[in-house]
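Marked as duplicate of an earlier ticket. Keeping the data here for the record.
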Amino acid sequence: MKKKYIGASFFGKAGNKIIGRIKILAITAAVAMATSPTHASQRSGVHANAMKVMVEDTSPGGSQVSVNSIAGKVTTGDLKPIAGVTIKIFKTADTRRVSPLQSLKTDNKGVYNINASNLSGDYIVQASKGSFLTKELEIKIGKDVITYPDIWLEPAKKPAAVISIDASARKPVKMNFGFNEYVITSTPHHRFNEAPYVKMMKESGATITRFPGGTIANWYDWKNDDFMTEEIKKIVPEDMVKREDYKTEEEYRVSVNKFRDSYLQEYIHKGTRSTEVRGKYGYEDFLNYSNQLGADIYYVGNVSFAPAGKTPADHLVDWMQHLKDRGLTVKYLELGNELIGPKGAENVQGIPHQLYNIDKYMATCEGISRRVKKIFPQVKIGILAYMIDKQLRGEDVDLLCRRISDNYPRDFYDAIIIHSYLRTSDRNLEGPQFRKDKIFAISKKTVEASIGQWKAIFPGKEVWMTETGYISGIGKQADEKNFTNNLFTGIVEADYYLRWADNDDVTTSYIKFYSISPTPSIKSSRFWKGNIPVNSPVGHAYSLVAGAVKNSAERLATTVKNNGGYIVKTATWIQDKDNKGNLVPGQGATKVIDVDVDYITAFSYLSKDGKTIYVPFINKSQAARDIRIDIKGVSLQGATAELSHISGSLYAKNTVEAPDNVVPVTSKVAVNNAINVPAYAVGVIKISIKK
């Protein structure tokens, strides 16, 4: 059967006012009809029942249509019309999708017309042909236009995906996983000492912690275990922001004022608050907490500021000597946190010029490293390789990294530090759901491109990802509203984590930002219900997949067959110089890159005692899928298995009122039979084998 590329759009205008617009763009692929190697789907390498998504604008934007209708056309990739595609519109509240407001089919020219005279508000659109069904699209009619360009036709019934595991092909697990903790903030202090939180974190998959955390590390005074509040008060904003970094005087003054009124005042407030609760929590409690977890600490050294009479280098080296004198061992040390200079009113960092200047930063780091390694010879030291010097804005990040790799000694550092948040949009795109169907392609491509870049530029060096998570890039308020604490974010981050973990010969740490917050937050995995910690779907997702990795000694070669999947074509991948060097889709670019993405993401690991095979997986499909396990090199005779997972509606949340809305469910399964996993699921299949 010939592959069909299905693309559709519908739109509407009343004079110059757009009343509604949506684009459906998907490709169905050949269904394997014969075993002959000359069959089209086999010649092209397309899986049976595979799908593709083409991302391009097919909307004839200037066309005029009746105020009472929304017109559209469904065509193949070569613009040939497709007849018989069913278009249905439902009210958003019709969660069962059983009562369409309208249902019609495209004519022989692929055209359809929807009567829009009685439609106003939020709706769900489905398009289907035969056994292929779209993911649902959300539209708004009579309101601001929101376009959701990425969906795919997905067969309602599919053969089981086969997870093939070669237990003889093994690599040691090197991934360290953990969470940032807000240590010196107004976050409730009791978390370090109370049993419920410690128990939850023991089950979280965490093997590492990070102290004292993110940006606060650049203001941390280890002697007082506190912010350098008095030092912050002495800072003159004009000394921190250089006029030549800005095109206009107005832009310069905006950054100066933002730095003074927001950035400095925020940290003065945090410092004052931490002093008020001093003695209730801090380094000693954090050390005790880490010991209870059996976790190593990634220390973040303050290379920015020091108390009067000390240089930052001397102050940091003194801290390391103090820890050594106490009988403690430092295994990991980061030199600074996000020293990327002032970046304008949106995100003023306020880092001194001598530190976001690469030459001076590297000289500072080399001096500190050589001194610290005399105190702790086995310590691993990480440097910031994603730094963006505003004076070098014209250079790509990889060139800046090459400057570090090529122009400075490489023997004084062991790792490079990145904060690769998964971003899927920017502030200028269509809305909070933008790219939600393409996000897994972005996840895969980001990891692949990043791993290739780091291997090429820093051969032999570890990569520490000491802050990460999912942020859409559309702004904090929209993120908090649309992505906080829901299953979708848990699925996205679990997929992202597993892809990095499968490359732990390069990336040896993944630290989620952050663990817990007083209230639900886009960056947090947990929140408080009174004095009781509550896992969000994100926290549960990490506990399932990272917990499997934590309990394992080796990762096994894994492939997934008969997986269907789709190919996303997106714009050129670029490195966003204003986003710490993260790879993002280049808007307006003309080059197209194909990215293969499967519905089932799965990897496999062997436990430390060799008696258990863990198969962490994600089902990104809107439908339940069957999975079969095929293991080479290990006998499954007498083996038993269980499935633990979370699933639910895509945006299901846990709340203070309903903290158990999304929780793991465990059931016994037969490893020799097909295992049915629900739609939108994150989980792990645990196979107990007899050695």
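See parent ticket for discussion. The first helix runs from residue 40 to 43.
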